[in-house]
Design brief:
By secondary structure, the protein is of the alpha+beta class. The chain has helices at residues 8-18, 20-23, 57-76, and strands at residues 28-33, 37-42, 49-50, 54-55, 83-91, 101-110, 114-123, 129-138. Strands 1-2-6-7-8-5 form a six-stranded antiparallel sheet. A two-stranded antiparallel sheet has the order 3-4.
Length: 142
């Protein structure tokens, strides 16, 4: 198991300061992060829904991308300029209205310049993913 370079409290403080566009409210909470995996929860809001009463694709993509950023920062420390190089999402089933969305992220490979990971997105307490994401992040020279 990897040793986390940032605790949940350190991640939250860093993100509030450096990335308030994504982490200034109380709608997304980091429940755990250990340098290898993380769990984020996005509290349900009607703003998440698209016509037809399902959780929108942009909501899911944004949460998945943010979860990858959090798990990466937990592994490498406060390197704010790490950026998404690729994100692929497969929508598997409808996200239920009224349910929080959980993002379970895991690093698959962490190199010096690139990190590859996956995120499973879950609706409420259902164990069945509503989307599966793979992502690659570019890590700047430090």
């Amino acid at each position: 198991m990897a040793i986390a370079k940032m605790s949940v409290a350190e991640l939250e403080e860093f993100l509030h300061r450096e990335f308030p566009q994504a982490f200034s409210g109380d709608d997304i909470r980091i429940e755990s992060a250990d340098g290898e995996t993380c769990l984020l929860r996005q509290r349900y809001s009607e703003r998440m829904l698209r016509p037809g009463g399902t959780v929108s694709g942009p909501t899911l993509m944004g949460l998945a991308d943010f979860a990858m950023y959090v798990v990466l920062l937990s592994a490498i420390g406060p390197i704010g300029l790490a950026v998404t190089a690729n994100l692929n999402i497969n929508f598997l089933r409808k996200g239920q209205p009224g349910q929080d969305v959980l993002a379970v992220a895991r690093l698959l490979k962490l190199g010096k310049r690139l990190a590859v990971g996956e995120v499973n997105l879950l609706s409420g307490t259902s164990p069945d993913p509503i989307a599966h994401v793979t992502a690659t992040y570019s890590i700047p020279n430090t």
